[in-house]
């Protein structure tokens, strides 16, 4: 579809850029919430398809494994063939994979569909972020656009719990997958009409050895963390996966210094501020994803909430993320250094988690859970927007896709690590507590509930510490100044779209 009037002749900017942002945001929301939308539906899907307790985790892990492992490849493909083209292909593929998963007749079909979703999400997500980077070139507008994008990236997981709860309770679990189809169709037509992008690089070649080494290393590490939860950290398979992952990534770094068209140009991660943003994002998400897992089970299993009520309980967290990102960070980023938002944000989020370490089997939501969620949400909202804006600032147009992919990779790998690490800590602490306190068989149910909550609080202490470490990393590494550093390198607006 050709759109020749993409830029105002006087200002040089696309007059429909805000409608384009709506389409980009819609696609990004679909990708992010799909990592959690099936969490609440999982018990129903497990019963319907006859999954074992050991295999049910693959409904979640198949998605995050494919997503996190293939993001770098997706980002480089976007740079080579064009961001708009890969954005549309990603949307169509994601919709098809979602329909396949919704129609699953056995567990293997569902696992495969979720892996396909993750693969197409790995193509879609970096295209969305790099399109945003090249669409908004004015520093003030770019701050607002990244505020909206950061809010969705931070709150999409919580929104997934709400939508998943409503669909599971009032329809059935399959609609947690079918719902993506109409969203993707709207986004495809919107993308064809509203988004523009310069053509891909016809002179460049795909770095095949880099793809094998980099994606293989990431897949091995994410798979290792996924298997650590059921098998234990010292299991030979888990240790072998970690060793293979580290070896493959070391070989990947070595190869990137010699490859003629590297998958990840090392100058992207050598830049101090960008590296600080990648690491801050990974650490922040480790804490956040672990919290979502614990709070879902705490609200449903310990407090007896329904799926819908559980989803709604996360709503204040989502609202706080949106306010922190769009109303505070987006307004201040042009006036203050990014770390002046990121460091307080991580301290506030850690403070909210410390409040949650005091929860018991009969805690009150209004007085003990809600204040913690509000603090955490506001803190994460302060942090995510400057992370996205700073990590993608000043990147050459031909590298915008792979840079965007690296931000998303740090998010997905952090989420996978956080879920496995904190869940293992919680399970171990729970087992130890029950063994030490179960003396009267008549009190077994009470002791098991108390032990479960004890495990959650121990893991949340770890999550709070990881959040504080994220704040320390941001304070020490992200040293860029506020004026005009949120703007990308000047680039002409293309006059036509293929």
From TrEMBL:
Xref: InterPro entries: EmrB-like (IPR004638), MFS (IPR011701), MFS_dom (IPR020846), MFS_trans_sf (IPR036259), Sugar_transporter_CS (IPR005829)
Subcellular location: Cell membrane
Membrane topology qualifier: Multi-pass membrane protein
Gene Ontology CC terms, in alphabetical order: plasma membrane
GO biological process: response to antibiotic
Coiled-coil portions: none
Source species, domain of life: Bacteria
Entry keyword annotation includes Transmembrane: yes
NCBIfam families in alphabetical order: efflux_EmrB
Designated name of the protein: MFS transporter
Organism: Streptomyces mangrovisoli
Source lineage: Bacteria, Bacillati, Actinomycetota, Actinomycetes, Kitasatosporales
